[in-house]
Write a structure and sequence with these properties.
Elements: H1 2-13, H2 25-36, E1 41-44, E2 50-53, H3 55-60, H4 74-77, H5 80-96, E3 100-108, E4 111-124, E5 127-136, H6 138-160, E6 166-168, E7 174-177, H7 179-185, H8 189-192
């Protein structure tokens, strides 16, 4: 019994962590789960307000602590074209209980951050919320855009040449032909695909 009394005393002396508005045991449990997630995770109400988030989410949002996530509005962090899609996704989750995966652009700290997110409805005793985990895919997206730009430059170079140019894979399958090739042989890029 002495050990139990000591543990109770230690628990009483621990600072009480702020919990979600209208705190209930299941909301407190949900917040604990969110804080333990290994990827950026937030809980969003149906008005688009972040109710809590973990340390990783705070980092992506360029906030100093998870406590600062609470109360942030999606309208304050999403790019305009992403905000409309987020509203639609929230409604879809709420009305059909479907999970969603989507890409959004965040505008945080003067920077554009691209994320892939996955959200799901969580039913609590006092209502439901959207649990969203996400990852920063900004670098991957930038690499894809650079690759696309490189392809466009290559395409322009090939098409402005007066020489017949084609590209084949190791098996001899045509991957690309230039405009001069198409003019002479009547086979376009669309034809070889």
């Amino acid at each position: 019994r002495g050990r139990v009394d000591e543990l109770e005393r230690q628990v009483e002396q621990q600072p009480v962590r702020a919990t979600l508005p209208c705190a209930s045991p299941d909301r407190e449990l949900l917040e604990s789960v969110v804080h333990g997630m290994l990827e950026p995770t937030v809980v969003i109400d149906w008005n688009g307000t972040l109710l809590c988030g973990n340390r990783l989410a705070a980092q992506v949002l360029k906030l100093d602590s998870p406590e600062q996530v609470r109360g942030v509005s999606l309208a304050d962090i999403l790019a305009p074209e992403s905000l409309a899609r987020a509203g639609t996704d929230l409604e879809e989750v709420r009305s059909s209980e479907a999970e969603f995966s989507s890409h959004y652009e965040l505008l945080v700290g003067g920077e554009s951050v691209h994320i892939e997110s996955h959200g799901t409805l969580i039913e609590l005793a006092d209502g439901s919320v959207d649990l969203v985990s996400f990852r920063d895919v900004t670098e991957r997206r930038e690499s894809e855009m650079k690759g696309l730009a490189s392809q466009q430059i290559l395409r322009r170079l090939l098409d402005t040449s007066s020489q017949v140019i084609f590209v084949k894979d190791l098996d001899g399958k045509y991957l690309m032909v230039n405009e001069r090739y198409s003019e002479l042989f009547g086979i376009s890029n669309e034809d070889i695909r």
